[in-house]
Amino acid sequence: MTKPIKNTSSDFEQVIMLITEARNRVYSKANAELVTLYFNIGKIVSEKVSIGNWGDGTVNDLAEYITEKQPLLKGFNRRGLYRMKQFYEVYSNEEIVSPLVTQFQVESNNQKVTPVVAQLEDNIFTFCKRILSKINWTHHLLILSKTKSIEERLFYLNHCLNEKLSKRELERQLNSATFERTMLGNKFSTAITSKIPTGIFKDPYIFEFLALPELHSENDLQQALIKNLQNFILEMGKGFTYVGSEYRLQVGNKDYYTDLLFYHRDLQCMVLFELKIEEFQPEFLGKLNFYLEALDRDVKKPHENPSIGVLLCKGKDEEVVEYALSRNISPALIADYETKLIDKKLLAEKLNQLSEIFYRNEQ
């Protein structure tokens, strides 16, 4: 067999790319049809059960009837039909979905657009067509089984759409309570300063993939994060590009070295992560602000936004942080980090406690 000439390799790759793109389009269309089908079947089952025409036995009969008529089909057993019913009922309450769905940012032609008008065009199936059908059914099952509130479900739908999450990535976000941690980060940064964008940063960060002992040094933490950079970026969220560790800043006649420096494409700014293996102390902010000033004066390009600093600490007192940040000029966030997964109930309690602190301060 004659081997292809070397200069044809790019042409061959172009053919492979066309095949891959076409296959992805076919898969995407098939998934959209499947999700819409499940939504429509869920509507029928829900309406029949709600008005008392169907009971549990009738749903079983339907499952058996489908199996008899379409024996090669899978997923239409009793359990599957009730999942479709739940799927429809969760996303068919327009009073709940309508005001929230307009917050979605969906990528279209590499540009973020608002996909649904506020009124959903008086048709809840517009939501199914433009949002739900773009997400894999396996992703929907994960979200339905691991979330409780409509806000939480819409949060993960939004992430699936914007970040193109794989099943494994979505499962980790659900298991590590990304919704609660993002809400904590949003609530704190919004209460303290408008300089920190919402929806980007979390609190706490979960580094269970590092396998670090309870007692570890800052260097141990830094090196472990570098070795597990892919998982670290996955935990931070897409949009971050790694710049380097021990990034050198020269001020006067001295050299200073930052811990971990990233660039965020959407924010168009540098994001500096400084690592502390102890509870937050107010003096940590002085060093962080110094680094941010040096980055903005000597490294930042004219078209870029001011740098953001994130202090990762092994614990913090929320009131101490609130005092420390209340007059802080630079955009900075103080976040905990944990080396093990945290119970979602504990994070919910922490969110309530934080709300109470800011409520008292506003009185």
Automatic annotation (TrEMBL):
It comes from the Bacteria. Residues 15-181 form the YhcG N-terminal domain. Residues 200-351 form the YhcG PDDEXK nuclease domain. Gene3D superfamilies: 3.40.1350.10. Pfam families: DUF1016_N, YhcG_C. InterPro entries: PD-DEXK-like_domain, tRNA_endonuc-like_dom_sf, YhcG_C, YhcG_N. This is DUF1016 domain-containing protein. It comes from Pedobacter mendelii.
